[in-house]
Amino acid sequence: MAIPKKTLEDLEFDVVVDNILTYCVTSHGKEKLKSLKPSLVFDQINFSLDLVSEYLSSLDNDNNFPNHFFESISKEIKIIQILNSQLEIDSFRKIKTVVELTILHIKFLKKFKSYYVNIYELTKDLDIVKEIIQEINSVIDKYGFIKDNATNELLNIRNNISSTKSKIRQSFSSALNSNNSSGYLDEIKESLIDNRRVLAVKAMYRRKVKGQMMGSSKTGSIVYIEPQETLIQSRKLQDFLYDENEEIKKILKDLTSFLQPYCNTLTNYQDYLTDIDVIYAKAKYAKEINALKPNISSERITKIKDAFHPLLYSSNTKLNLKTYPQSISLDNNKRIIVVSGPNAGGKSITLKTIGLLQLMLQSGILIPVHHSTQMCVFENIISDIGDNQSIENQLSTYSYRLKNMNSFLKKCNSKTLFLIDEFGTGSDPELGGALAEIFLEVFYERESFGVITTHYSNLKLLANELPHMSNANMQFNDKTLEPTFNLVLGQAGSSFTFEVAQKNGIPYSIINRAKKKIERGKVRFDATIAKLQKQRVQLDKTASSLKQEEDKFKKENEKLNLTNDKIKSKLVNYQELFDSNQRMITVGNKLNDISERYFNNGKKRILISELLNLVDTLNSKRKKINFSKAKLEKKKVKKTKEVLEKELHSIRKQKKKNKLKPVKKHLNIVFKIGDKVRIEGSTTVGVIDNIEKNNAIINYDTFTTKTNISKLEFVK
C-alpha cells in the first residue's frame, strides 16, 4: 500500500523535495530525489534517517566528506556492453573520475567508520578496482590526449609525423629562399591555403616554379604554389596522420573492451555516488531548517514536541519573522484529536505540520522538532485539506468531500493516520454535522489515528464523550482578538465568531441581531467555551508564574544550604583548631612546671622521669584520638553531616561534664612498698621504694620519681 498522491499534494511534499533538489550537485541525484516517496518499512526508514544524520554531523566537524560530483556514465556503461564498441576519450575521463571518487570515499569511510557506521555500510560490498584507473592512465594523459607510448606502433607513427613535419618546414624554407632570390615571389612571399603553406608567385613566373598551383589572387597577379618537395612530404604526412587516427581507434577499442568485465562495478560506483548526493542534499536541507532525527518507535505512539512546519520556517527565517512551534501527542489511549478555535488561528498549519513531518520522516528526511520527539510509522496517510472543488468533474465541494470520505472508509484501519481540515463543512450544519459524527465514530471504532479541525459543536461533544478521543484548541487572545498559534490539548475552543466580527468593524447592533437569530443555548454554549478558554489562558499564565517562583526559591534554597554547609565546615575546623591549641597550652604549662622544678632542684633523674612520664601520657592520648578518628571516618560513610555535627556536639558536651566530675580511683587498693605500679597513662612499670603520706617514690632502675598515689595503677 502506497501513500496516496493526493496526500502528497495536500501536504506540499513535492515543495519540500524541490527545496532539497537545490542542494544536489549531480543529475543522477536530482533524478533519484524526484522519484522520492515515503517508505512503509520501519528498518529502511530508520537506516535512511541514520545516513542523513551522520552526514549532517560531518558538516559541523573536521572530518568532511570528500567531493562526490561526477558526470553521468550511464550511456558509457551501455556502450561498453556492446561488442567491438568504442568510447571517446572524454568518456574515459568521466569513468576515471567516478572510479577515483568512489575509491576515495571507500578509503575515507574505512578510516572513519566509527563515526559513520551506517554510511560505511553502503561501501562495504564495493570492491576497490585500481586497475581501471591504471589502464586509463597508461593510455590517456592528464590533459585528455592519447599518450605517444600507448603502443609501439603509435610511437613509430608519431615519430614519423614529427620527422615529416620537420622536412616540410625545411623544404618550404629552401624553396622560399631560392625563388625569392630569383625574384619570382611577390612582396608577401607566402600565404596559407587549406592550412598549408604556399609561395606567393608572380603570375608571369608561374611556370618557373615547380609544384602544385593551389589558387590565385582576385586580380590574378599572384599565383599560390606549393613547392614540389613540400608537396611530396605533405602527402606523406597525410598518410601518417591517417595511420595515427586508425591506431588511436584501435587503442580506444581495446580500452573499451578492457572495461567490459567491470560494467557492474562501474554501475555500483555510480549508484553509490548518487546515493551520497541524495544524502548530502537531505543533510544540507536539514541544516537549513534546523532538523534532526527523532526517536522512532515500533509501537503506535506519536509525541511531537516543538515542531515547525519546514516550509513556513524557511519562509519566515528569510523574512526575519517568528515561527511558532506546535506540540501534539497521539497514542492508543488518545488516538483522535479534534482541534477547534477561530479561523486564522493556525488550525490548518498544525494539521499540515503533523502530516508533512510524518511524510518527511518516512522518506528519510530529518525533521525540525525537539530531540525528545517520538514518532512511529504509518502504513497509510490520508488527508482531506482545502476546498478541492472539481470543475472538470462537475463536483461541488461537498460532493467531492463525500467521495473522499468513501475512500477513507475503505482505507482506514489501525495503521492509518487521517488528517481532515474543516471536517463536515459543505452542507447543512445540522445534517452535515450528523453525518460527519458518524464518519468519526467509524474511524474511532477502527482504531485509526487522526487529527481533524472543525467548528461543529457535536464533534467537540463527541470528542469529550469518547475515552480515546480528545479535544484541543488553538489559543486566542481575547483582548487583542489575535491568534497565539499555541495548541492546547484537553479542551475545545470557541470560534470567537462575534468577537472577530466586532473587531473587523461590524456594527454592534448587527451582531446583536445575529445573536437573536440563533438558539439561546448555542450562544450560551459558545460563550461558556470562550470563558473556559480565557480561564485556561489565565491558569497557564499563573502556572508559569508559580513555576518561575518555585524555580527561584529552589535556587535560593540551594544557595542557603551551600552557605550553611560551608559555615558548619568552618565551625568544625575552628573547634578542632581551638581544641588543638588548648592541648598545646596544657602541654606547654606542664613543660614549664617541669622546667621550673628542675631549675629549683637541679636533679636530672627527676627531670628525665617527668619528661618520659609526660611523653607517655601524650602518646597514650594520641592513640585514643587516632582510634576515635578511625571510628569517625567509618561513621562518615553512613551518616550525613548533620548527624555528625550532633555527635561532635554531644562528645564535646560529655567532655566538659567529665572535666567537672571528680574522679575517684583506687578506693579499694592499698599500695605498699614493693608493689609493681605504673603512672596512669604510662606504659613504664616501676616498684614502690617508699610511701610518704599520699605520695610514693617509684624506682625505675635507672632513675626514681615521686608522684601522688591517686595517679598510680597496680600491675599484677
CATH topology of the largest domain: Rossmann fold
Helix tally equals: 21
What is the terminal separation in angstroms? 102 Å
Query: Which class of secondary structure composition applies to the elements?
Result: alpha/beta
Helical percentage: 55-70%
Q: What does the main sheet amount to? A: 6 strands, mixed
Q: How many structural domains in the coordinates?
A: 4
Number of strands: 19
- CATH H-level superfamily of the largest domain: P-loop containing nucleotide triphosphate hydrolases
The global form is flat
Gyration radius over CA: 51 Å
Task: Write down the CATH class of the largest domain.
Answer: Alpha Beta
- Spatial order of strands in the largest sheet: 10-11-12-8-13-14
Offer a quick outline of the entry.
This protein has 716 residues and is of the alpha/beta class.
Report on the architecture of this protein.
It is built from 21 helices and 19 strands. The chain has helices at residues 5-10, 13-21, 27-34, 42-58, 74-80, 89-111, 117-123, 130-139, 152-181, 228-259, 263-288, 310-318, 347-362, 397-411, 429-445, 457-465, 497-503, 508-517, 520-601, 604-638, 641-660; strands at 185-193, 196-202, 211-216, 222-227, 295-296, 301-307, 326-331, 336-340, 374-375, 380-384, 416-420, 449-453, 469-477, 482-489, 676-679, 686-692, 695-699, 704-708, 712-714. The chain starts with a helix and ends with a strand. The model is unreliable at 389-394 and 659-667 (pLDDT under 50). It has a six-stranded mixed β-sheet with strand order 10-11-12-8-13-14, sandwiched between helices.
